[in-house]
UniProtKB/TrEMBL annotation:
Residues 191-227 form the PAS domain. GO terms for cellular component: plasma membrane. Its EC number is 2.7.13.3. This is Sensor-like histidine kinase SenX3. It comes from Planotetraspora thailandica. The lineage of its organism: Bacteria, Bacillati, Actinomycetota, Actinomycetes, Streptosporangiales. The chain crosses the membrane at residues 150-173. Residues 402-509 form the Histidine kinase domain. It is a multi-pass membrane protein.
Length: 529
């Protein structure tokens, strides 16, 4: 194919070059003819029809000086006054004397001296009459020799260019082969189609950077989870990535299941290097939304907590039934009746009761479970007297996560604190569709040095290494902010209590016909615990 292209191109160049040279030689012949026609001696002798040797001498002098094939001067009848072959002087010209009409003519035709490029100019007397013509010819083989010489030079340059082009093509092919890891164009096309299908066909976010630390690949899920859409080739530092994710990519660490916080999400990150043979292709990160994954986990946590509460209550009931059975079997009927009355008046310590102030089943289930678990740990979890939640939650799973994490942290703080008895008080207050949440514990409070970092991911004040820490408060704050609210530490420590956390969740409560006044008028004084 390359040879064919070169052959066709070279042929076109030869044709165009020959045509251009023919035009130039015709113009040259015409210029020589004009100079001869301007000779006053030649004009005078031809106009007088005097066939003098001077015309032949002057014409031949011009021919030898310019190197043309011939310079022929003829009168108005076409009779030659000069010719390279003196024997032809006095004869009629072999071609049509077109210039006798008074116009200049350029032609390429054959005469007595062969094929030539010709220029013909009329001989004009001072009064403007046509006295004859001057015909100048340049041999066609001279044109051919010139074309051949130019083509040889062009062929030499073309040959050098072809050799250089082939060498450059080989080097370029090797470089491309190296850069494409030996893949052919069809393989690259298939790989691109597969990559697009995989990237946009999964729910997990995928983000990749090259060895130079520039973002090269991401999918729609990654842009949604991260909250930004970097342009191709953007450096990691300028891509607007969350700090934790940016650190992982800069350090190029291989991690699995690491939590990274964004403005409103908690992401599970898996990262690792990508290699093909000995080639380093960069780093790839997959992102999963923990807040989405936790939706089912939250329900499972509530069910598990309820199960633990039922187990604790069943154990307590079994003990009390055994006691009652023993009294009856020993015949202590009076003591048994008194014991039954005591049980009727004193519900189980682990039993949760809110006096009907909390209507949402998710929150009720969570509080029942957390109360039982806290009781097993020696912590009294109680609901404040002013708590009132008459409506249903619009996004119960988020609220359950926020409340559950705050209670877990408060129970752990109360258990580790010096105050006894250990307690945690929870306040849930509905104001229109806004839920106000306050959690107070009896712990030792938050150290002053830890206040600024309390809501940072992976930061904890707990000394217990048996379970993961540094996630609950960070997740709770992000969930509240994602819902348009906020979670703050209003008191790090006090004289009569430990830390005080306050959360505000707008738009979290469905409208309810119940009113706070109606509830308070019917509520039992003192609340429930």
């Amino acid at each position: 194919m390359l040879v064919l292209i070169l052959g066709v191109g070279f042929t076109l160049v030869a044709i165009l070059l020959r045509a251009e040279l023919m035009r130039q030689y015709e113009e040259r012949a015409l210029g020589v003819a004009r100079s001869v026609a301007a000779d006053d001696v030649i004009v005078r002798d031809v106009a007088a029809h005097e066939r003098t040797p001077e015309v032949q001498r002057r014409a031949e002098a011009v021919r030898r000086r310019t190197g043309v094939l011939f310079v022929v001067v003829a009168d108005d009848h076409g009779i030659r006054y000069s010719h390279p072959d003196p024997d032809r002087i006095g004869q009629r010209v072999s071609t049509e004397p077109e210039a006798l009409s008074g116009a200049e003519v350029v032609t390429f035709e054959r005469g007595t001296l062969g094929l030539s490029a010709r220029g013909k100019v009329p001989l004009l007397t001072p009064d403007g009459k046509v006295a004859g013509q001057v015909s100048v010819g340049i041999a066609a083989d001279q044109v051919s020799r010139r074309v051949t010489g130019l083509l040889r030079g062009a062929a030499g340059f073309a040959g050098i260019a072809v050799v250089l082009g082939v060498a450059a093509s080989v080097l370029l092919a090797r470089r491309l082969k190296h850069q494409t890891l030996g893949l052919e164009p069809a393989d690259l096309a298939d790989l691109l189609r597969e990559r697009e299908a995989v990237l946009h066909g999964i729910d997990e976010g995928v983000l990749a950077v090259d060895p130079a630390g520039r973002v090269t690949i991401w999918n729609d899920a990654a842009a949604r989870l991260i909250g930004c859409l970097p342009a191709p080739g953007t450096p990691i530092d300028d891509a607007g990535l969350p700090p934790g994710l940016r650190t992982l990519l800069i350090e190029r660490r291989a991690v699995r299941g690491v939590l990274v916080a964004t403005e409103d999400r908690m992401l599970v990150v898996t990262a690792g290097p990508v290699r093909r043979g000995d080639h380093d292709l960069g780093h790839v990160v997959t992102l999963r939304d923990r807040t989405d994954l936790d939706e089912m986990a939250r329900e499972l946590d509530v069910v598990r907590a309820l199960s633990d509460a039922l187990r604790a209550q069943a154990h307590e009931y079994t003990n009390r039934l055994h006691t009652l059975s023993g009294l009856l079997s020993l015949g202590h009927r009076g003591e048994a009746e008194a014991y039954l009355r005591e049980l009727a008046d004193d519900p189980l310590a682990t039993e949760y009761s809110d006096g009907g102030r909390v209507r949402d089943p998710y929150v009720r289930g969570l509080l029942a479970a957390k109360t039982a678990v806290a009781s097993e740990q020696g912590v009294d979890l109680r609901l404040s007297a002013d708590s009132f939640l008459p409506g249903q939650l619009r996004f119960p799973l988020d609220v359950v996560t926020i409340v559950g994490n705050l209670i877990d942290n408060a129970v752990a703080a109360a258990r580790a604190g010096a105050r006894r008895p250990a307690w945690v008080e929870l306040s849930l207050v509905a104001e229109a569709d806004i839920l106000h949440l306050v959690v107070v514990d009896s712990g030792d409070g938050v150290p002053a040095a830890a206040v600024d970092r309390l809501f940072d991911q992976d930061f904890t004040t707990s000394a217990d290494d048996a379970r993961p820490h540094g996630v609950g408060l960070a997740l709770a704050r992000r969930l509240t902010r994602r819902r348009g609210g906020d979670l703050t530490l209003t008191r790090a420590a006090g004289a009569d209590c430990g830390a005080v956390f306050v959360a505000r969740l707008p738009g979290s409560i469905e409208p309810s016909p119940a009113t706070r006044e109606a509830h308070l008028s019917a509520a039992v004084p003192g609340g429930a615990s």
